[in-house]
TrEMBL record:
SMART domains listed in its UniProt record: HTH_LACI
Source organism of this protein record: Planomonospora venezuelensis
Transmembrane segments: none
Residues annotated as domain HTH lacI-type: 10-64
Name the UniProt record assigns to this protein: LacI family transcriptional regulator
Domain of life: Bacteria
Recorded GO MF terms: DNA-binding transcription factor activity; transcription cis-regulatory region binding
Length: 355
């Protein structure tokens, strides 16, 4: 093996010399090219590790790939996004790809557009956009130049992939659970729509619409009560305060996201009410925080890790050349916990009980 001056940047030629192979062989290993033997890969990887070689991003971009993927988050506070990222990172492990994570801007489409442009300028090989605000036309424009997977939207497109939860089934599970516990005055905390998307494609619209439908199917149209705020702790707090102040106070709250449910929990306690003795509370996402013993929030599990891992797999396939569109739907389950219980003014139906 050749000696190496560690005061300068390691090059592909240094790796080749150290491993006693050609630069072409090193390049093939770095590109994960077809036909590289396990022995060759092991030898080159050993040299890379020993020398601490890091491929130059600009040079890789000139050769066609940067081995980076961009991840666009609406914001960084929602713990569900951590589950999605865990799944994504597990999928990328061992592939040579690194994720560049940016915050889109919450409810600001212009801030989101600038974030997407920043990722494009850095020549990422692909993007995962989580619950983006952009229109389908804007997403398709991005997808024509960069491999794209969209998570959390129910769009149908021929040029990008979609990963989403069956939000209708999830909302049905929550409302059905509360009805079976004898609740009739069930209220819902939803999210304002600041996007450029058709409502039918948005998860919060689907959850709110399903809540209304199930209530109406059970003859409870007059009990429908929706506070439209945001899927944040502040939004949940404000939404719960609004609903609790109504003349006919609900006996159960269904928050469209766990993060909103945490804010609602604060408002309920502030009002001097007990959960679930005075009011039951359910969320959506089944985040790790929901399972903490002192919170014990009933929630819908949409398996964020599976969604993130699937999105990562689809993104790598897109980068690898697949052009056919894929839509992947997760079937949710309900995880009952101590935050839901029998209605204080009704009998449970069908023997249902809170977990």
């Amino acid at each position: 093996m050749t000696a190496y001056d560690r005061r300068r940047r390691v090059t592909i030629a240094d790796v080749a010399g150290h491993a006693q192979v050609s630069t072409t062989a090193v390049s093939k290993v770095l590109r994960n090219a077809y036909g590289v033997s396990p022995a060759m890969r092991e030898k080159v990887q050993a040299a890379i590790d020993e020398l601490g070689y890091r491929p130059h991003a600009a040079a890789r971009a000139m050769r066609g790939r940067t081995f980076t993927v961009g991840v666009l988050l609406p914001h960084i506070r929602n713990p569900f996004f951590a589950d999605v990222l865990d799944g994504l990172m597990d999928q990328l492990a061992g592939t040579g790809y690194q994720a560049i994570i940016v915050q889109g801007g919450g409810a600001d489409p212009e801030a989101e557009r600038r974030a997407v442009e920043a990722l494009t300028d850095r020549q990422v090989d692909g993007m995962l956009m989580i619950a983006p605000l952009a229109s389908k036309a804007d997403l398709e424009e991005t997808a024509r130049t960069t491999a794209l997977v969209v998570l959390g939207r129910h769009d149908r497109s021929a040029v990008y992939d979609s990963v989403f939860d069956d939000d209708e089934t999830g909302a049905e599970l929550v409302v059905g659970h509360l009805l079976a516990l004898g609740h009739r005055r069930i209220a819902h905390i939803s999210q304002k729509d600041g996007s450029r998307v058709r409502p039918a494609e948005l998860l919060h619209t689907i959850r709110a619409r399903t809540y209304r439908r199930v209530m109406e199917e059970h003859g409870l149209a007059d009990e429908v009560a929706v506070a439209t705020t945001s899927y944040t702790e502040e939004g949940g707090y404000l939404g719960a305060r609004e609903l609790l102040a109504r003349p006919s106070r609900p006996t159960a709250l269904f928050a469209g996201a766990d993060l909103a449910a945490f804010g609602a929990l604060a408002a309920i306690h502030e009002a001097g009410l007990a959960v679930p003795g005075d009011i039951s509370l359910a969320g959506y996402d089944n985040t790790r925080t929901a399972a903490l013993a002192h919170i014990s929030l009933t929630s819908v599990d949409q398996d964020g890790a599976t969604m993130g891992g699937t999105a990562g797999r689809l993104l790598l396939e897109r980068i690898g050349g697949r052009t056919s569109a894929v839509r992947f739907s997760v079937t949710p389950t309900l995880v009952p916990r101590r935050s839901t219980g029998p209605s204080p003014d009704g009998e449970t139906r069908g023997g249902a009980a809170a977990g």
